[in-house]
Specification:
The complex is a heterodimer of chains A (62) and B (476).
Chain A lengths: L1 H17 L12 H31 L1
Chain B lengths: L3 H4 L1 H4 L11 E6 L2 E7 L3 H6 L3 H9 L5 E4 L9 E7 L13 H20 L2 E3 L7 E4 L2 E4 L5 E3 L10 H18 L3 H7 L6 H7 L2 H4 L4 H11 L16 H21 L12 H4 L5 H18 L3 E5 L5 H8 L3 E6 L2 H13 L4 E5 L19 H5 L3 E6 L3 H7 L4 H11 E10 L4 H7 L11 H11 E8 L5 E8 L5
Parallel strand pairs in B: 9-10, 9-12, 10-11, 12-13
Antiparallel strand pairs in B: 1-2, 2-4, 3-4, 5-8, 6-7, 13-15, 14-15
Helix pairs in contact in B: 5-6, 5-11, 6-11, 8-10, 18-20
Classes of the chains: A mainly alpha (62), B alpha/beta (476).
Chain lengths: 62, 476
């Protein structure tokens, strides 16, 4: 369920961001997965420091 | 990229160069598999001698490799020669049931994740990197692990993994698309844009399709500049965290794409069709067991293996078994049985009357099933399968016997189902006239032209006979 909400939120954001601005004569059919990976990686990277802080916090409590 | 396809060169008994990966090429020499490593592959080859790779090889997850000296194979740019263990029988993704593709994908992700700890990264993720030893997947593309830039957070084979593992499995599970036709027609798998067209709006907006199909499709509508593919460098610890997250995300999606057990026309065949009563079935089993004890085959082909009952008997008798059937559902069940009971059975979705063709560049990357099978097995089991070849496929009896003889180097164990048998009459669908000539005498005459009858028996109360046959040219 958590994963569904995460994907839906990410999907809505990406869908808005990825609407074509102009029609292209050529698009690479394999490129979408690469761009998605980059976006997914960016989200993961964003959580890295957040998790680190949380881990420290929980570490201190132990 | 040297892959499972190349590994097959061992069966071809000829030297085959490899061309996709400049890191190295495979050659076969006197039945040995040798890998000539070039300068660009030297750093990848080093990984094979790290504790992690040796641990995998011991587990059986990675092909066993050792250094050898073959001075005449050295050319300009060659840095070392490696030798690999031989896998008994090469198979390709379009011959696997969904269970096996899923197991291959699971292994690929596990190795990709664990290699990060050693400072390496998996540079490609295709099912052609995997072969099966019995039911167990083995990673064979030995030069696929390259040293990783510590701050690189991109896993380049991400899209390839989607195309060749996840999307074919999702298409099979949700749209009933058989892997055989998907992967035979599309060597590089399914693009998200293709699967997107098959999805309802609900599927497009919910996992696992949202992240594996819809978002890549929407994002692919924008032009991507070449510089976007340049790896971004970030803090190494953070990069490892991101890569682990990406790979864990793929693992989660792969679990959602796991095949479900479903019924099919042939599943539960032996237990539900009441073809044999218990004493008749016991008589059949005893005949097969005795033949196995007498012939002691190292390699057995079970044609029409169904859910692997007789493949299991052969494996328990010590043989390395390849079981084939045209129904992916029963082959999947055979794989589950072999895995659970640790039986040396390689189950494949192959119809002997329409076997897998040779595929790839110049039709030389993956050999046809018949080229791999010809003469490879000391015993071929063809239990209750000949009448399907004769009636359903309309193969003439001499041609069917020739083919069974071709796949065996010594023995064939054949069940003859006569036109008086109720199952024969059911599949003949009113065309009985075509088989009026198929008497026991006619059958035995055709058999004797090719084989020596070692032993035969009638199953009591049935119009079915069992024969243990020895090829006429196999006595040595």
């Amino acid at each position: 369920m958590k994963s569904s909400i995460f994907h839906l939120a990410l999907g809505a954001f990406i869908l808005t961001a990825s609407l074509p601005i102009h029609a292209s004569a050529y698009t690479d059919p394999g490129s979408g997965a690469f761009v998605y990976q980059a976006a997914y990686a960016a989200v993961l990277a964003g959580t890295f420091y957040f998790r680190k802080i949380l881990n420290r916090f929980w570490g201190r409590r132990k | 990229m040297p892959t499972a396809s190349d590994h097959h060169s061992q069966v071809e008994s000829r030297i085959t160069g490899t061309f996709r990966d400049p890191a190295g090429r495979l050659v076969q020499r006197d039945g040995r598999i040798l890998r000539v490593v070039s300068e660009s592959g030297d750093s990848c080859a080093r990984f094979l001698f790290t504790p992690k790779a040796e641990e995998w090889a011991t587990q059986g997850s990675l092909i066993r490799t050792w250094r050898v000296s073959e001075p005449d194979l050295f050319t300009a740019g060659t840095t070392q020669i490696l030798e690999h263990e031989r896998i008994p029988f090469a198979s390709y993704p379009y011959e696997w049931p969904a269970e096996m593709l899923h197991a291959a994908g699971t292994l690929t992700l596990r190795l990709a994740l664990e290699s990060l700890e050693s400072g390496y990264s998996l540079k490609d993720a295709t099912p052609y990197n995997i072969l099966f030893r019995g039911p167990k997947p083995v990673f064979v593309d030995a030069l696929s692990f390259e040293p990783r830039e510590p701050g690189d957070a991109t896993w380049l084979p991400y899209a390839q993994f989607l195309r060749t593992f996840l999307l074919p499995l999702l298409a099979q599970r949700h749209f009933g698309m058989e892997l055989g036709s998907t992967l035979l027609a599309h060597r590089d798998g399914l693009e998200p844009e293709v699967v997107y067209k098959w999805c309802s709006w609900l599927k497009r907006l919910t996992p696992p399709f949202l992240g594996t199909v819809s978002m890549p499709t929407w994002m692919g509508r924008k032009e991507v500049e070449a510089k976007a593919y340049a790896p971004a460098r970030i803090d190494p610890e953070r990069a490892t965290f991101v890569l682990q997250g990406l790979l864990h995300g793929l693992e989660k999606n792969l679990r959602k794409a796991a095949p479900k057990l479903a019924g099919s026309r042939w599943s539960g065949y032996l237990s539900t069709t009441a073809l044999y009563d218990s004493s008749q079935f016991l008589a059949k089993e005893t005949f097969v067991r005795d033949a196995l004890n007498e012939t002691k085959p190292a390699r057995v082909l079970d044609v029409g293996c169904n859910e692997g009952h007789f493949s299991g008997l052969a494996a328990q008798a010590g043989a390395s078994v390849v079981g084939i059937d045209s129904d992916p559902e029963v082959v999947g069940r055979t794989w589950r049985k072999a895995t659970d009971e640790k039986l040396n059975i390689l189950p494949l979705v192959v119809d002997l009357t329409r076997p897998s063709p040779a595929t790839g560049w110049r039709n030389e990357e993956a050999a046809s099933f018949l080229d791999r099978a010809r003469g490879h097995f000391e015993l071929v089991l063809a239990l209750a399968v000949l009448h399907h070849m004769l009636v359903t496929e309309r193969v003439p009896l001499p041609a069917a016997l020739d083919l069974l003889g071709e796949t065996s180097s010594k023995y064939v164990l054949l069940e003859f189902v006569s036109p008086d048998d109720p199952m024969f009459q059911r599949i003949v669908r009113g065309r009985g006239e075509l088989y009026r000539h198929l008497t026991l005498e006619h059958f035995e005459n055709e058999v004797r032209e090719r084989f020596e009858i070692v032993r035969s028996t009638r199953l009591d109360g049935l119009h079915r006979w069992l024969y243990l046959l020895r090829k006429k040219d196999s006595r040595s």
